What does this fold into?
Amino acid sequence: MSSIDSSINYGTDSMAWVRALSHASDAELYALIQTPMYDAMLFRHADAVRRIYYGTDVYIRGLIEFTNYCRNDCYYCGIRRSNGMVHRYRLTKAEILTCCKDGYALGFRTFVLQGGEDMAYTDKTLCEIVSTIREHFPNCTITLSLGERTRESYRLLYRAGANRYLLRHETADDAHYRRLHPKEMSLAHRKSCLFQLKEIGYQVGAGFLVGSPFQTAKELVSDLRFLQQLQPDMIGIGPFIPHSNTPFRDYSGGSLILTLRMLAILRLMFPYVLLPATTALGTIHPQGRELGLKVGANVVMPNLSPTGVQRKYELYDNKICTGEESAQCRSCLEQRVEAAGYHVVTDVGDMRRRKLTK
Ligand code: SAH
It folds into this structure.
């Protein structure tokens, strides 16, 4: 497995890289993940492939962080239930709707409702929120990121008008999963939620932390294998960043280069996928998101949450883009996207994918 002398040479045609990576052996994946020597080639082909499939399009999604209450206690996460230092908040339906209205005026056509696993939002409450957004914005995409719920809950929310669901699997290695989460959580359950969501009809996003404690290339290969099995529409990855009030406060965070390498590999393995350049990537390097876009990422997610709560949704230390008005946040990101050589697209973002896959 660890012999990395079998040098990677897929030639100069970027589509040959796509074909090669779609049935790459574990040894090849280890080599790509562990050898800086391949970076220049990986990055170049990943960008070429994103341009073949998506041109220079970058899709924007308005992120609404509507609650930071959470029943879970993930060791890496700043809003885990044991963190008594967090000022907890919940947005009302009216406040969420205001975020959507502001966002719509700024050109957003996808709203992402994300929160901790907060059972104060019952199925009934959430369905009311979703169906009200659906009524007001019939031409918009509603993405949910609410963690693990029951199949029935996912079904009701889908029926109420939600289209997409983001649920990172965090790590696809069972032993590793257990080292990142308390024992009441399980990888098997997380995975089953993802398959249920898919079955119901959602476009589904999975993903993992890069550089989380105890992670090696072995776990990253498992992540890629799981994604091949799931075939998600979206993949969210970002570097792990320690939070000072969590058990992982003293671990080092994930690196820029490894995150870029994983983004490039994902673009080549999943050429159609919607792949965000995340806020976490922008947090560990001032140009992190631009660099992400240049190696295959094609989505950015500006914050539409009310300014007063943004800092409270602190998953990790020093999170950027807190305390900014949504208009400011959007125009800053647009400038960054343009400076990197790409273009923000505000209409519904997955049409191209549909056309190409049919
Ligand atoms: N409750 C929802 C949303 C979780 S927050 C859910 O379970 O899906 C969104 C993502 O933030 C998580 O999936 C996790 O990958 C990421 N995250 C949490 N803590 C982090 C940290 N310390 N560093 C980087 N990313 C983190």
